[in-house]
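Re: the multi-chain job from yesterday

Posting the exact lines I submitted so nobody has to dig through the queue logs.
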Amino acid sequence: MSLRPSRRRRRPAVLAAVVAVAALGLAACSSSGGSGGSDDASDGGKKFAGQSLTVIMISSHEGAAKWLSTEFKKETGATIKPVIVPYDQIGSKLALDQQSGADTIDAAAPWYVSLGDLASQGAIQDLTSWIASDKKAIDPSDFIPSIYDAYSKVGDKRYGLPFDGDTHVLFYNKDILARNGISGPPKTWDEYLQDVKTITQNESSHGVYGAAIFGQKSPLILGASFANRLAGYGGEFLDAKGRPVVNSPEAVEAAQALVDVNPYALPTPAETDFGAGNSAWFAGKVGFIENWTDLGVRSEDPTSGSTVAGKWGVTTLPVGGSNTTPRASLVAGFTWVITAHTKKTGLARAFIEFATSSKVNAELLTASPPTGIDPNRKSSLDSAEYGQEFPEIQAVNRTTLSGTLAWPTGKHATELAQTLTDELAKLLAGQGGSAKDTMDRVEAKWKDILGD
Amino acid sequence: MVSPTVLATLVLGAYPLVFIVLTALSESSLGQPFQDWVGTRNLQHALGDGDVVASLVRNVVYAILVTIASTALGVVGALALHTATRRGSIARTLMLLPLITPPVVVGVLWKLIFNPAGGLLDTLLVALGYRGEPVAVLSSSAWAIVGVGVADVWEWTPIVLLLVFAALLGQDRAIGEAAALDGAHGFRLFREITFPAIGGTVAAVFLIRLVLAFKVFDLVFVLTSGGPGQATTMPAYLIYQAALQQFDIGRASSITLLLAVVVTIVTLPVILVTRRLHRD
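And the result, structure tokens for all chains:
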């Protein structure tokens, strides 16, 4: 018996496949017109009444998305349609949206590290002249200076406005420290290691560990853990001329500090992402966790399932080596950009001006339920309400005012971050030789990528 | 007029292949393909990258091993189901469960099973009296790939089982019964009578399973992100990273071409064996 179907049977099947492909093509073509429309302001009633804007935001900003949608509609009449995606997929979503011709996205709040790549692809608008001409409304002088440049500038142009001034600090569980005879939070990474060892050795049999180390192989996770140590040891990613310095003694010490704490951390760092690490913190299972300052807000929030309300403290990241001054590590900030193909530039500008304003930032810091937003403005950082509700967080956040460590943001910055993360993951898995070998390889790869 | 067959071949086969080759030979980003022709530079970079070469070797070993495991388990399961065919309807329905479960959910499920802090495996080990350090399968350079492989075998073995079972149902039962009367039983009956009858199907299923194993992505993405280190990084994961995280379509296409060459080299003998068994 022949396995081949008859010609009569084959033809409908092939036709069906062709029709399906054609239908998909037509669907893609028709959707490209979906985001059309002008941004002409309505004269009657509110300025943008009846108009809508589609924006992409990450999942941890979902609360902020709801808050912004509600408040912006009250103010302008415009409807914000947030598209929520995983934290590392804004860039690809945006690029695919534009390459397909769909052009459904008008604005986005990506990780600031992707700014250079998005700009070099022509995916986002150059906002330099708008910011310069609308200084009064945007008030750039109120942005925290170290955040403003890092989150908006590529070369001598500005492509974004800072939204979430994320910086990592060190949270500690007061009960766990007290149980283990630790009088206060560590000042140096060496003291931190000793404290983590003590807690794990004393309490791991009961499921309590010294620290949750974010070690999953992602730039925003493992890369952030390294950046925290690099900041503490006083290192940099690039020198003043933009050349890689990731095999400096400080960088090697930072990598080694990560290796040293690995065996004493919540099992296991390689599997610890934000969900796993934060769950352990909220359950009171870890003594320390490096996290964004908004973790303090959520630790006090009754709806987050936190068991550590009133039991935690927060301090600046430890220091190490010859560095004695605490530094902020700008590991995961997010910045508003306007897409290159939007037909609603006016509305998009109005929205990001609103979303990044001093007033809105101050309100997002203390909103309930928590919005996941950290200070991006000097005025919001210093606001009385923020200080009254979260005095400790306000104090540690002031490290962002000077001497911060930021990721590179130029073209290929995303690849630089990924390369570093891949090599660090190998180091932690015992596949990368010593910390020095690892950082030498990263240095060589970065030079290759940057064409040095 | 172009026939539907030719059109379908062009749309589904030729166009993607030509696009991949052209982007591999050019500097192309996700937003701006074909910025500049760079010849074989992308391919040379990929071949000179130890992580890419290691992932290709790892992929070959992984694909062959999980395919052998799936095929062996699938054939044994199908034979067991065939001998208990009257009671097998519930079992057959259950067998569909892994197949109809979305791959991402399969990944999440196995991540929970392997979770060193209270996962199913950890709980079972504790119940059995284990009191050592938590067993972290997915964080072990040696065991993580085994963990991914176990999930992969669980997900795809049912398709082998169901296809082989269908082939067994198509057998002429009289031949088996005659052989049994002549004294053939057990493994001898399988080797002399059953396997020659279903060999072509088994080979074809082995080929399908092999290709599926080469394409593994979802499980790696959810379970390990290619880690620890590079222990579970497969070419499909590197292609995803290059294309959708670094927007470097030139590099992604180069790795795709290398993978295509490797898959062709590995599957060609299997295709030849499959054809021969079908002819026989």
